Amino acid sequence: MKISDILSRGRSFSFEFFPPKTPAAEVQLEQALLELEPLGPSFVSVTYGAGGSTRERTHEVVVGILTRTSMTPMAHLTCAGHTRAELRGIVGRYRDAGVENILALHGDPPAELGLGPGELAYATDLVELVRDTGDFSVGVAVHPEGHPASPDRATDRRNQAHKLHLADFGVSQFFFRVSDYTAFMDDMAAYDVTAPVLPGIMPVTNVASVARMAAMSGAAFPPELEARLARHGDDAEAVRREGIDAATELCQGLLDAGAPGLHFYTLNRSHATRDIYANLGLAAGGAG
Ligand SMILES: Cc1cc2nc3c(=O)[nH]c(=O)nc-3n(C[C@H](O)[C@H](O)[C@H](O)COP(=O)(O)OP(=O)(O)OC[C@H]3O[C@@H](n4cnc5c(N)ncnc54)[C@H](O)[C@@H]3O)c2cc1C
Questions:
Q1: pTM greater than the 0.90 cutoff
Q2: Could you tell me the pLDDT band of residue 288, with boundaries at 50, 70 and 90?
Q3: What is the DSSP string of 159-188?
């Protein structure tokens, strides 16, 4: 099913996974998929390691979800380091396998791989290539706090609005304040953007790792959230519970503010997402 059709019917609740690199990671992903499928997600997505060794694995995991589970998959795809012909080949294989949804991204391959820039300059070029290759529903990445490489906020907002005009929907980078999302959507409305944008949710269950990811993505790790978690010191279970509570409050605030759904970064684990689902009172299968 196409995600644009899912979104036109009402709120969407989706989960993001990454392709496993080791047999143990493969078992963990299988387990997470098994435990999250009963929640009836609207769709699930699988990331693409720009320049990484797991690129072929994304295809396998996406097609596996399509053929072996009841869930609708979306494949992430990055254009960095790829030729046009390679990208057409990857997208064509998805089309032929019956995959209907692609998140078109630029990607940041590590410099040490020496991949070169690739033939496409921006994610918008990949949106066009995907549309030329098949009848897909195409999403794009959205950065509510601005993309770290943008020269200034006005340019950043203009580029993001242009991208959302071309795409069917957006999925956002994670952030921790409802106002980051509402301010972004207000700015997009000023550019006449009508595409729905699903806020990305990263529950903080481990302060150090999320603080590191936030620094890389340009998301602010708000001092008030840090202080709230720091109150629990080394009590890892209490930190986890507080992180789940904070994420639940963020989710509720976003839904109250009119967000068209929620997109959970699961990190291939099911617990945090299941706990937040329960806190929000989302019944299994009630997500569609
Ligand atoms: C929901 C989500 C999922 C992601 N999944 C993956 C994944 O699976 N694999 C992965 O490797 N990475 C992933 N990323 C990370 C993403 O690849 C990086 O954030 C990357 O740096 C930017 O990708 P983009 O698609 O937003 O790029 P773009 O939209 O191409 O933007 C990149 C930069 O170019 C600028 N720009 C855009 N258009 C123009 C223009 N016309 N003129 C001048 N400048 C312009 C933008 O302002 C920005 O600074 C994901 C990010 C998000 C939010």
A1: yes
A2: very low
A3: HHHHHHHHSSEEEEEE-S-HHHHHHHHHHH
